[in-house]
């Protein structure tokens, strides 16, 4: 057997240039097998060296006990240490020299402690993950709030606790192993067991982490580089794929999260919304993250959450333009026109040179019905930054606010051969703030093939728009009926009032009406001077943004020179908006008359009508507006003093076409047709049919 003693030179004095930090072998005469001191030599001074241990083993079979290496070396150390009891037992049975059971027990215990510590750490981290999931509930990597610092803190605490436990165990093991040899060891030759234990634990714990982290960092950098390159080149598909791959490597990479959300917002809005939520959780101090989340929420229709997200952005950056204007845009999209106008004005008071903001304010002014204010805002935008689109909008706003004349012609024809022809016109003065005034004059000729009569009307009207949610219209005047059938000409007061209120943001609608006018569809009605006085209300309630419930109630007093009759109408309908431009509905109407009459209108005891309806509204690229209101169903009628009859058909059609001939020149065409007993009070039979048409041309006076 060959004895060798290995000495480590930890550091060298300035005059020991020949001594290096290598292991040096000495001849057997330099130290004995049980000695712990090196013999003095000129090449390595004793005070700078410490002997680890002398071993007496065969060449090729000795195992150097020390600090386990990292990576694959550390794995070999653990395997070798765990195999030492078997090797020692084999040597004992064969009566071969060995280092003794003390070293075997120490190394095996150290390896077992390392493995136990790794297992306990994994078990505790698993408990921490479960607990953090119960606290913050992250449903998915790309959805909802992430666990934040819970896992990081738990991992740090558990790692520190595990390190302390292993260190304590190693120290106790060292005291047990050297309980009898401590006094005999000299300080210069004592093995630094504490340092070895610390290095063992750190090496085992940090090896895999540092290696994987380095690999993940490299893979993440490559993915991000490819994603950024594709994004800059405009290749959205490749960029989206690479950003998703980057998130698979590092789920908490905020840059990849934001870019992937931005790329997904058109093709997959739900995924984009989840990603923006994730980004805000990762970067809670970034106001642009809250803005992007607010826009995504607004696109999904969650306007309340969108506004709260923009409020968070404004809390972080109160003077940031994108936050202020973005919030105003969300308000406008949600239908809160008045609030949007207030936000735009607040911004423009401090930043009057923002042309884009002036243009957006002008569009909201148009929605408020403030054409003159809209024109002033467009003028400011155009003066700051001339633009052809803004110039066209400015011309339209000026034409809408200007004074105008509107000649009109209309006519009706029914199944009894009655016809009317009306000619007239309206003059409007320029709008003044929320108010607008107009004067209407017309002449109507009424005939049935035998008798001809007529009426003249003069009406003063006003429209008031205190805000986008309110509309008030009122008119009053007089109607003069020609002398007929021995009756002299008669002048009767007429008028109407309508108030409409809508809760901002697609809320409930309340529409109230009061009207007093003459029935003039036939010469008989005109001769009997039948006057209609009506009160009505319509209420619409949206239900969960899926459908609308609409209720209608009206009461009408029909008076003539001989009697007063009463008509009551109740109707209910369910309307479903299929698209912003298309609505389908199911409706049921009930009409009752107090008694029969000889004044010239149909007055049954009861009329019931069930219809399916559809409302369509479109605008072409040339600005032509098309509106259609169609209904088809069945009806049944009960005459006064009789039982209700069989079901028969009930049809209706209304259409409106507005053609812009030029700026400030709009041609308006209306068509109305009906076959039902509840059409209006001028019906004469259960199967009464009529059609009407109106043509008018509004001419702005710039």
Structure description:
With 702 residues, this protein is α+β, with helices and mostly antiparallel strands. The N and C termini lie far apart (119 Å). Among the domains are: 1-62, no CATH class; 336-401, Tetratricopeptide repeat domain (Serine Threonine Protein Phosphatase 5, Tetratricopeptide repeat); 402-701, Porin. The chain has 15 helices and 19 strands. The strands form two sheets. It has a 16-stranded antiparallel beta barrel with strand order 4-5-6-7-8-9-10-11-12-13-14-15-16-17-18-19. A three-stranded antiparallel sheet has the order 2-1-3, with no helix packed on it.
What topology emerges from the helices and strands here?
Elements: E1 4-9, E2 23-26, E3 49-55, H1 72-93, H2 101-136, H3 150-177, H4 193-233, H5 236-249, H6 254-264, H7 269-282, H8 287-299, H9 303-316, H10 321-333, H11 337-350, H12 355-368, H13 371-384, H14 388-401, E4 403-414, E5 419-428, E6 435-447, E7 452-467, E8 470-481, E9 490-502, E10 509-518, H15 523-527, E11 531-543, E12 547-559, E13 564-579, E14 582-593, E15 606-619, E16 625-638, E17 648-662, E18 665-675, E19 689-701
Antiparallel strand pairs: 1-2, 1-3, 4-5, 4-19, 5-6, 6-7, 7-8, 8-9, 9-10, 10-11, 11-12, 12-13, 13-14, 14-15, 15-16, 16-17, 17-18, 18-19
Helix pairs in contact: 1-2, 2-3, 3-4, 4-5, 5-6, 6-7, 7-8, 8-9, 8-10, 9-10, 10-11, 11-12, 12-13, 13-14
């Amino acid at each position: 057997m060959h004895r060798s003693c290995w000495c480590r030179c930890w550091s060298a004095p300035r005059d020991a240039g020949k001594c290096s930090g290598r292991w040096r072998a000495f001849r057997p005469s330099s130290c004995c097998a049980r000695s712990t001191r090196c013999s003095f030599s000129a090449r390595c001074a004793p005070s700078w060296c410490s002997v680890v241990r002398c071993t007496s083993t065969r060449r090729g079979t000795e195992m150097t006990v020390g600090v386990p290496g990292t990576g694959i070396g550390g794995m070999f150390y653990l395997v070798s240490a765990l195999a030492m009891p078997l090797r020692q037992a084999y040597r004992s049975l064969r009566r071969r020299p060995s280092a003794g059971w003390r070293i075997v027990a120490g190394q095996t215990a150290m390896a077992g402690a390392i493995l136990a510590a790794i297992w306990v750490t994994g078990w505790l981290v698993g408990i921490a993950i479960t607990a953090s999931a119960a606290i913050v509930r992250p449903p998915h990597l790309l959805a909802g709030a992430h666990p934040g610092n819970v896992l990081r803190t738990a991992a740090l605490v558990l790692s520190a606790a595990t390190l302390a436990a292993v260190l304590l165990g190693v120290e106790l093991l060292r005291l047990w192993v050297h309980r009898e040899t401590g006094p005999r060891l000299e300080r210069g030759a004592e093995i630094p067991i504490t340092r070895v234990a610390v290095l063992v634990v750190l090496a085992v714990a940090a090896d895999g982490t540092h290696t994987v982290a380095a690999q993940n960092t490299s893979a993440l950098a490559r993915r991000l580089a490819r994603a950024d390159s594709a994004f800059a080149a405009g290749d959205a598909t490749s960029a989206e794929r690479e950003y998703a791959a980057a998130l698979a490597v590092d789920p908490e990479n905020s840059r990849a999260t934001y870019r992937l959300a931005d790329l997904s917002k058109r093709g997959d809005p739900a995924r984009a919304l989840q990603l923006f939520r994730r980004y805000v959780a990762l970067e809670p101090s970034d106001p642009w993250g809250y803005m992007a989340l607010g826009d995504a929420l607004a696109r999904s229709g969650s306007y309340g959450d969108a506004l709260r997200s923009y409020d968070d952005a404004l809390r972080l950056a109160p003077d940031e333009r994108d936050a202020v204007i973005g919030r105003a845009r969300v308000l406008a999209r949600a239908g809160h026109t008045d609030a949007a106008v207030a936000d735009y004005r607040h911004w423009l008071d401090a930043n009057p040179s923002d042309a884009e903001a002036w243009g957006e304010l002008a569009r909201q002014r148009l929605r408020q019905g403030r054409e003159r204010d809209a024109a002033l805002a467009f003028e400011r935008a155009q003066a700051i930054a001339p633009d052809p689109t803004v110039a066209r909008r400015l011309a339209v706003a000026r034409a809408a606010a200007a004074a105008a004349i509107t000649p009109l012609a209309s006519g009706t024809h029914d199944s009894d051969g009655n016809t009317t022809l009306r000619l007239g016109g309206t003059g409007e003065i320029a709008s003044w703030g929320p108010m607008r005034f107009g004067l209407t004059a017309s002449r109507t000729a009424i005939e049935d093939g035998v008798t001809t009569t007529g009426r003249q009307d003069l009406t003063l009207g006003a429209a008031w728009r205190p805000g986008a949610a309110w509309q008030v219209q009122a008119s009053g005047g007089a109607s003069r009926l020609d002398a007929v059938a021995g009756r002299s000409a008669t002048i009767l007061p007429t008028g109407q009032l309508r108030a409409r209120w809508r809760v901002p943001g697609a809320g409930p609608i309340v529409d109230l009406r009061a009207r007093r006018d003459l029935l003039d569809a036939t010469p008989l009605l005109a001769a009997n001077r039948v006057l209609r006085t009506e009160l009505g209300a319509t209420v619409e309630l949206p239900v969960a943004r899926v459908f609308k419930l609409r209720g209608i109630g009206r009461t009408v007093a029909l008076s003539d020179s001989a009697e007063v009759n009463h008509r009551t109408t109740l109707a209910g309908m369910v309307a479903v908006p299929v698209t912003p431009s298309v609505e389908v509905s199911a409706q049921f109407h009930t009409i009752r008359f107090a008694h029969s009459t000889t004044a010239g209108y149909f007055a049954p005891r009861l009329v019931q009508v069930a219809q399916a309806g559809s409302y369509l509204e479109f605008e072409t690229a040339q600005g032509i507006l098309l509106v259609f209101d169609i209904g088809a169903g069945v009806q049944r009628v009960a005459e006064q003093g009789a039982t209700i009859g069989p079901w028969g058909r009930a049809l209706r059609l209304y259409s409106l076409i507005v053609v812009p001939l030029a700026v400030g020149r709009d041609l308006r065409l209306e068509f109305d047709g009906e076959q039902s007993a509840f059409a209006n009070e001028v019906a004469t039979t259960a199967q009464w049919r009529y059609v009407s048409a109106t043509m008018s041309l509004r001419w702005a006076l710039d």
